[in-house]
């Protein structure tokens, strides 16, 4: 077995693996490989010359408490059925992490098929959602929101402004460049999705969704407040509309986005802190690292973080550090004394 980046000659096989593992349409897969995939940011596992597993690293920009982090989002992590349960994805993810860390990234993200699977690699859940459902309520507006099924006439810039206005209310989210927003919409329409946009109410609101028989499954909802949400969703021509809303990590919430810390020192230097100073022990079993750090808050500047032999005030796994830094914990947890809680909102899943 050997691991290396994919090349163009691997594209047919990589598309075949994607189709087998995820079942997406050929149109979506073609669009994804044409617009999203950068072959220098891929990894494949080969049995001889045969590609049997792969993953993709996508350029993203995360914001945590107003601090921007360049990051990579893992997507399309897939293994052919005949090659599963051999630890291939473990090896691929580890190689990806080491490469990202070498390039100076402090954190990485993904949306998993199974949270428990990626938890073993040091990922932890940092964003939660609650699923909701409603029936349409047509005829409630003088002018119905516009529905788009192609890219050519969509009010993209108004939507992008609405997106950034919406996520500004949260402490932890992804920042989308104009290019990233365009690619996101083009993927939607390549996969026969829809966008509904209400430009007649301020602020602008929109939803991205797919139709399954007579049900609309909304995977991105940018609408501020219950009234705006119901006006928008109620105009979707479906018998039932399913959607989700960002949620605190309470008992009724569903796990969503996961984050992995690659460089604890780099992260802690930038993060807002609650305690003035503390000693932090961090265990990273997956990458076989151990840290014992003195952390001192410096207002308006980079925090002081240095190695120490002092006894730790707080001991965390690398996954728990992601939760703590992202503020994704219930009130009264062991993180509360050192790290401020935060709100999070993510939509991207690939």
TrEMBL record:
Q: What is this protein called?
A: GNAT family N-acetyltransferase
| Every N-acetyltransferase domain range | 1-146
Specify the species. Christensenella tenuis
Q: Which PANTHER family match?
A: N-ACETYLTRANSFERASE EIS (PTHR37817:SF1)
Q: Which InterPro entries match?
A: Acetyltransferase_Eis, Acyl_CoA_acyltransferase, GNAT_dom, SCP2_sterol-bd_dom_sf
